[in-house]
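COMPLEX REQUEST
Ligand: magnesium ion
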Amino acid sequence: MVLKTAGEVSLMDQANRIVHDVLDAIAGEIRPGVTTLELDRIAEAMIRERGGVPAFLNYNGFPATLCTSINDVIVHGIPGGTALREGDILGVDCGVVYKGYYGDAARTFPVGKVDPEAERLIAVTRRALEIAVETVQPNRRLSDIGHAVQSYVEAQGYSVVREFVGHGIGTSLHEDPQVPNFGQPGRGLRLKPGLVLAIEPMVNAGAAEVAVDADGWTARTRDGSLSAHFEFSVAVTEDGARVLGR
Ligand code: MG
Ligand code: MG
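STATUS: Structure written out below.
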């Protein structure tokens, strides 16, 4: 576990501010007919304009700035030329490196008017992230976060993904510890001020199982059900959690 100084947390706040500026801009561009490749180009230009570098581009060979995950895609969808359609839901995950420090956040958006069950899935996943953030307190245990997420999500009739987890973040995109969205409470390390975590519930409307496409990236629900994803990078503070970039 690497603890960050106040100066490092400040740089990570700036990296995450770029990420959230991008997500705010993308929110204003999403509509039926737009392609995810168009959204990706907007994101890359904004990041570079602000002095950042896209963190996902070329990460283990990933070919784009954003991960764009439509409907049954859980995470790691690759932007492309297919137009969004009314009623789709779109997960947008963005990472930025700024002055050597990483920011990472994600949101799921409705495309035009979506059906009530898709709206509810998005709302539950957003709330699961809020609950996770509220759980972060010094001296609480790491697994309390995942337990809180899983308990809430399953009570809503949905399932949490096991194959992908949140993570520490700092001078690398993925640092220790892993932050699962499931598990028993009271396990793992004690949270300490200066620990920075990317917390990212991935919630499936149906079963938890995952299948990855032949491209090696696109991760879908095995049963074809919808999936949503929200993520914040969060610094543990003396009195709770500070969401970075907000
Ligand atoms: Mg992310
Ligand atoms: Mg992440």
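REMARKS: The CA atoms of residues 158 and 205 lie 5 Å apart. Residues 104, 167, 198, 200, 231 surround magnesium ion (ligand 2) (CB under 6 Å).
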